[in-house]
């Protein structure tokens, strides 16, 4: 028996965040929100790597 309903695939746009535009403090806040551990002396590139990883 065929269903009278059809399911169409939905395209979901994902927003890409450009972490390089964020400050170190903002990056650390994002990491904290995601419960990702980082060292207090990690540089911006390391923090971005953790977020993208």
What does this structure look like?
The protein starts with 23 loop residues before the first helix and ends with a helix. Helices cover 36% and strands 0% of the residues. The protein has a domain at 19-52. Helix 1 (24-33) packs parallel to helix 2. The protein is built from two helices and no strands. It is elongated. The protein has 53 residues and is mainly α.
Task: Give the arrangement of secondary structure elements.
Elements: H1 24-33, H2 44-52
Helix pairs in contact: 1-2
DSSP helical segment count:
2
Helix percentage: 25-40%
Provide the low-confidence segments as ranges: none
Overall mean pLDDT stands at: 87
Rg on CA atoms, Å: 19 Å
Would you list the SSEs in sequence order as H and E? HH
**Sheet with the most strands?**
none
**What is the tally of beta strands?**
0
Terminal Cα separation, in Å?
45 Å
Globular, elongated, flat, extended or rod-shaped: what is the shape?
Answer: elongated
Sheet-strand content, in percent, reads: under 5%
Structural class: mainly alpha
């Amino acid at each position: 028996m065929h269903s009278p309903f059809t399911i169409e695939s939905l395209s979901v746009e994902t927003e890409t965040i450009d972490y390089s535009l964020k400050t170190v403090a903002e990056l650390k806040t994002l990491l904290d929100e995601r419960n990702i551990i980082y060292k207090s002396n990690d540089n911006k590139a390391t923090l971005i790597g953790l977020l993208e990883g």
